Amino acid sequence: MYGTHAIEHGSSRSGRWLRERRLRITLWLAAIEGLLYLFHALHWWAAVALAVIAVGFWWYVGRSNRSDALRQLSWIFAASQVLVLCVPIALGIVKALAIGVIAVLAIVALFFLFRERP
Fold this sequence. Notes:
Order of helices and strands: HHH
Helix content: over 70%
Distance between the termini: 87 Å
């Protein structure tokens, strides 16, 4: 039985294809939508609303649906939308760190400027 794989009960050909590639598809969708957010084509609240809709659809419809393809598509949709929410959060953290570094550098520069005697 080398090289044979068991087919999961209740799965379809398209569902198995999506399941094999769902992480890759999710990451590509999140990357594209993250770029849309960074270039201000997607607003923060639109991303939040879309994520809430996607997770709600997956929770109430996708998880228990008989269609394997719909289960996989709803998972891809929900996971990609939640990942898109990580972009503004990461951007905010990086922005706060950059402001903190600039403030520390300004304080150090002021210290050296006032310490110097004419």
